[in-house]
Design a protein that fits this description.
The structure holds two protein chains of two kinds.
Chain A (H helix, E strand, L loop, with lengths): L1 H14 L14 H17 L2 H41 L2 H32 L3 H12 L19 H16 L8 H9 L1 H4 L7 H14 L2 H32 L10 H5 L2 H32 L17 H5 L4 H12 L9 H18 L4 H19 L6 H10 L2 H20 L2 H10 L5
Chain B lengths: L2 H11 L2 H23 L24 H11 L5 E5 L3 H4 L9 H9 L3 E5 L10 H8 L7 E7 L15 H8 L7 H15 L4 H14 L1 H12 L34 H4 L5 H13 L22 H12 L4 H4 L2 E6 L3 H4 L4 H20 L3 E5 L16 H21 L7
Helix pairs in contact in B: 2-10, 3-6, 5-17, 6-7, 7-9, 12-16
The chains are: A mainly alpha, B alpha/beta.
């Protein structure tokens, strides 16, 4: 009886809604381990694609419900139904309206507080709190807990949903055939391996891979998937999580009193060591999570796009953005930069488009100015990097010299990128002081 | 070389099915190693859990680990005395040789085996009580000692930080089936803890009951190499990758510290508020913020606080284990007590007496200590120096001997 009672208790625990508060730890959660241990072998055992796809959909819904809850699922379901329906019409106006809706939903959930407090607040300091208070009064059920960077609790994976739906409607608007099979669209929308942290999928490649996986998943997929997951967990749990603990102590982003007192107290070697650890932490954390997502999809026979390709080996800023968070940078290129005109309207417009695209890229990471500054920093870097050779006189000679100096190019590129991480992780004054301390001898 | 190319290389090198078999076999092997590690006492010459072998530095001792410590220390025929409770009973500010539980062992002699499983800030229901319960059949002649403050109701199933031990033992089938306790825990989960990691903890404990990964990694971290960085990794003293067995026991001899460090004048006012607070909330405040007295000028107790304690202690342990539990009411240092008014001192005294009485009425044994100690016996407001440790050891030894007779472990003299 005791054994049965314990089994019932454990099953109750497994099926209860999530209490994982940190979404960066979903793949590390024990609930997910149980879920994967059940869902993936059942997917393998079903054998027939017409059974596997509905089962995969049910698994995705279970995952989404568990971690997002009903309140987190409903907005996504509504947005997905609207996106699917508008796509079927193939009407350009309807698709454009759907794109606007996705953008508005993203702004509503992730950027209301930022827009009201930080943007409106710049114009009039009373306006921001007034808008916040009005929004809280109108939608009390959606309000985020005090101290949150959001005004409303964003549904799990909101940024990824919005970007994938925008991509879908944009492509359909341009003439691509929409997905007619609602099951294919539903799995594209809430595919559990990529739901939390990407990679951002493209629907045509994904549906092709989905059908291929459902028909032909085999032991080679399982072996490659497991290797990839193991590598992901090694990067994420063993390296990144330990680095996070250490950096929170040695170089915390929030420190009472003198913001840089601890970093300034270190010697030059220690400062550069911590600087390198900051760069390693984000690479290992993010690429580790991507590896787990790609590996999980591979266990189902589905090939997701790569997200990282040795970014710290890049020898230029352009090269870096072709290696770092590839699915995001290519999305920004295809759906922001090129529609804005890309490089087609002269140098000033090209630079402006690049800066705007990168500012949005930064803002995508979170509703705070330091992300915008980080995006603009890369936008400026990219503008210089891609145009300096055209400068009369010095430009061609410098370009020719750098072409013969790949190590120098690599060193400058990495220094630029790593300094950028200070802007990414720390408030601007602190980031600048830390950067200056890297070049200041005691 | 891209990641995809690396994986193509791996695929070409290893036959997928061989690799899958290897993964499964490797995992099964690690589970077996975990089961093996669960039976080993890695803490040779154990005296207590230090900051480096506790959650403060992200080390979570398992119930099997505690049971293994007991099995390696206890000799046939000895009565087992397990010490739980918080930092006071862990022996903060006492060197390992000065610990009060060592003194207790010396006073009790070879007939007893005293094992200290106290953790900082832990409650009566935390790790040590679980280990004692898990060993109830193996060592039925046992006494469990923990400390509390008056009117402090413990949480069934353990406090937030330490409740992993309860679920660890629960899913390994080491605890007594006890419906009232199960209901109390379920009620608490619904009321307080549901969104605070309890579900993850239960799933992990359930998985661990099959795989023994916690025992495996604790064994690796203690014996071979540490795997988790913590803020207590002090440069020059401890190194991140060093096995935990090489880390020192960092508690100093608190009696060597001068008075102005132990009782800093700057915190006097705050500490007096804390000392008064022990008894304050147990009595009725009147509308002026003062406390009601009855016509004979005695303080009137505030019934809801004491009802909470009476109800709270009712179901924390199975009935059979209550009578072998000794609760020590930890008093405040006389350095502060003497600075209270006479009435406040009296209120403190009757609060402690009431606490002891209610624990006894709940089926436990209880005593208070500290009121007749001196400021030199205390390291600060609550922790003891080696002098206080010796006094506490003597006091508890007398009580434990008496309990051993009452419980039938020893014949009546």
């Amino acid at each position: 009886m005791i054994v049965i009672s314990q089994w019932v208790q454990s099953l109750r625990a497994v099926f209860a809604p999530a209490d994982v508060q940190d979404y960066g730890r979903i793949f590390n959660s024990f609930w997910f381990v149980i879920f994967a241990l059940v869902a993936i072998p059942v997917f393998w055992l079903l054998r027939k694609p017409f059974l596997r796809l509905p089962f995969l959909f049910v698994a995705c819904v279970t995952f989404h419900y568990h971690f997002a809850g009903p309140a987190g699922m409903l907005p996504i379901i509504a947005l997905a139904i609207v996106t699917y329906t508008l796509g079927l019409t193939r009407n350009k106006f309807a698709c454009a309206a759907g794109i606007v809706l996705s953008v508005l939903a993203l702004c509503f959930y992730k950027y209301t507080h930022f827009l009201s407090d930080e943007v409106l607040g710049l114009i009039n300091k009373d306006w921001g709190p007034a808008v916040d208070a009005a929004a809280r009064k109108q939608l009390p059920g959606l309000v985020a807990p005090a101290g949150s960077i959001y005004l409303f609790v964003p549904p799990l994976g909101m940024s990824f949903f919005a970007f994938e739906f925008i991509h879908y409607l944009y492509e359909v608007r341009k003439g691509a055939a929409p997905l007619r099979n609602p099951l294919h669209f539903a799995i594209f929308a809430i595919f559990f391996p990529s739901l939390v942290a990407g990679p951002i999928k493209r629907f045509r490649q994904f549906v092709g891979a989905l059908q291929e996986g459902a028909a032909n998943v085999g032991s080679a997929d399982a072996a490659e998937g497991l290797c990839r997951i193991a590598m992901g967990f090694l990067k994420k749990v063993v390296i990144a999580d330990n680095l996070t603990l250490a950096l929170d102590f040695y170089a915390p982003s929030v420190e009472p009193g003198n913001l840089v007192v601890r970093f300034a107290s270190y010697g030059m070697v220690e400062r550069w060591f911590l600087f390198a650890l900051i760069a390693m932490r984000i690479l290992m954390d993010f690429s580790g999570y991507s590896d787990i997502a790609i590996g999980l999809a591979r266990l189902l026979g589905i090939k997701l796009p790569e997200n990282f390709n040795w970014p710290y080996a890049a020898q230029s800023i352009q090269d870096f953005w072709q290696r770092w968070h590839i699915s995001l940078s290519s999305w920004i290129r295809d759906y922001v930069y090129i529609p804005l005109g890309g490089s087609r309207h002269g140098l000033p417009r090209k630079v402006f488009n690049g800066l705007l695209a990168f500012a949005l890229c930064g803002l995508w990471h979170g509703p705070a100015w330091n992300f915008v500054v980080w995006g603009l920093y890369h936008g400026v870097g990219l503008a210089i990097c891609s145009n300096y050779a055209a400068l009369p006189g010095l430009g061609p000679r410098l370009a020719a010299w750098l072409e013969r100096q790949p190590r120098t190019c690599w060193a400058f590129t990495q220094l630029f990128v790593w300094l950028g991480w200070l802007l990414f992780f720390y408030p601007l004054p602190r980031a600048l002081t830390m950067a200056s301390l890297l070049f200041t001898f005691k | 070389m891209t990641a995809a190319e690396i994986f193509r290389g791996i695929r070409a090198t290893f036959m997928p099915k061989t690799l899958l078999f290897g993964v499964a076999a490797g995992f099964a092997g690690l589970c077996l190693l975990g089961r093996h590690a669960a039976r080993l006492d890695v803490h040779r010459n154990y005296s207590r859990f230090t900051q480096y072998t506790s959650p403060e530095s992200k080390y979570y001792p398992t119930v099997n680990e505690m049971m293994a410590i007991v099995r390696s220390k206890i000799k046939p025929g000895q009565i087992l005395v397990i010490v739980g409770g918080n930092s006071i009973l862990r022996g903060v500010a006492q060197l390992p040789d000065q610990m009060w539980s060592k003194r207790l062992q010396e006073k009790l002699g070879d007939g007893y085996c005293v094992v200290n499983f106290a953790f900082d800030s832990s409650l009566i229901t935390d790790g040590a009580s679980v280990a004692a319960e898990a060993l109830r059949d193996e060592y039925p002649r046992q006494i469990y000692i923990a400390n509390a403050f008056p009117a402090q109701a413990p949480t069934p199933g353990g406090s937030n930080v330490y409740r992993w031990v309860y679920w660890d033992a629960y899913y390994k089938g080491l605890l007594m089936a006890d419906e009232p306790r199960a209901s109390a825990i379920a009620g608490n989960i619904v009321k307080y803890y549901f969104k605070d990691g309890i579900q993850e903890l239960r799933i992990s404990s359930w998985l661990d009951s099959w795989c023994y990964f916690n025992d495996f990694w604790n064994d690796v971290a203690y014996q071979d190499f540490n795997t988790v960085w913590g803020t207590l990794m002090t440069p020059g003293v401890t190194r991140f990758l060093d096995p935990r067995k090489r880390y020192p026991d960092p508690d100093p001899d608190g009696s060597l510290f001068p008075y102005d460090v132990r009782y800093p004048p700057s915190t006097l006012a705050l500490e007096l508020v804390n000392v008064k607070g022990v008894s304050m909330f147990a009595f009725n405040p009147d509308p002026t913020g003062d406390f009601k007295k009855d016509p004979a000028a005695y303080w009137q107790v505030y019934p809801p606080v004491w009802t909470l304690l009476t109800d709270g202690i009712k179901d924390i342990f199975p009935a059979a284990l209550k009578k072998r539990t000794l609760i020590l009411m930890s008093g405040s240092s006389p350095y502060y007590l003497r600075r209270l008014t006479e009435e406040e001192q009296y209120r403190d005294k009757i609060t402690f007496e009431m606490g002891v009485r209610l624990w006894k009425e709940g089926g436990y044994d209880a005593i208070e200590y500290g009121r007749d100690f001196t400021p030199d016996d205390f390291y600060d407001r609550t922790h003891l120096t080696r002098f206080g440790a010796a006094k506490l050891g003597d006091l508890v030894a007398t009580k434990v001997r008496a309990m051993s007779v009452e419980l039938g472990y020893l014949p009546k003299p």
